């Protein structure tokens, strides 16, 4: 076998099976603090490894399929963590899905987008992207957020911030249908709107997709298998860690809703890194595909899954945002529209988005 085709043994190769071993040893037990900390390290490693292998598969299938694979992989992790915590937590988790999905939307729309624009604009003078594709993604995210997270606050069939069963079913079907329509648009009908914009300043690669040259079929299949293993490990380890996450949030004196922020930060960290790397390579379009794709998948896939899971879950499911969250979402939408329409951005736009993210995080701790 040629040295260039021989698979290398790296931490991303070893972590998924190691995570499975740790899961098998810890399943059904109540480990102490040192062991919980060790499991947390393995869990984070499994998340990073899962997204790495999703990126390898993504490189093989090309852009914009690559961003889609990564977004779906991240959302599977997010859904697993949400459902696991809702099933195993002793405390009220009626708002956990809402808090986590909203956190993912705010982190994606303001955190990932803000960092990507700031890095690209500082390094390449202007961050350049396709406003047609990006605008379509933003419109889909805004519609999904409005239907799934804002409307429940104003419906009158059920008290509080809840949907009735029929309303939840409608929101789930509408979210899934809209997400499917966007995927069709992004990958088939108008794929060219979501490809990196040629500026003449970025790196040139053999296949011209904005990524490094794609891996071989063997590497892609290996990564696909390791991705499945890593996701299974993440689901199981999340169940083991769920009491510790809630205890840590309570010990810090943060509101219970901050658990959702922790989950979103955990699962979106690798995607944030990938987006910043793409921006540094002057591929801002890939960064925005990742950001809005994550926000979209977070709503379009999580809400239908939670709707189905609610059949077996006890207690209410609060999806409606409170007044402060609606205001933050409204500001984020206005700023995002003003950012996307020109098709290019200065460092200022990145800074504005990051200020909105900072406001959200601070007010999540001190509402």
Automatic annotation (TrEMBL):
Residues 35-187, 223-365 form the Sodium/calcium exchanger membrane region domain. GO terms for cellular component: plasma membrane. It comes from the Bacteria. One of its GO terms (molecular function) is sodium:proton antiporter activity. It is found in: Membrane. Keywords: Membrane, Transmembrane, Transmembrane helix. It is a multi-pass membrane protein. The chain crosses the membrane at residues 9-28, 34-53, 65-89, 101-122, 134-154, 166-184, 220-238, 250-269, 290-312, 324-341, 348-365. This is Ionic transporter y4hA. It comes from Nocardioides luti.
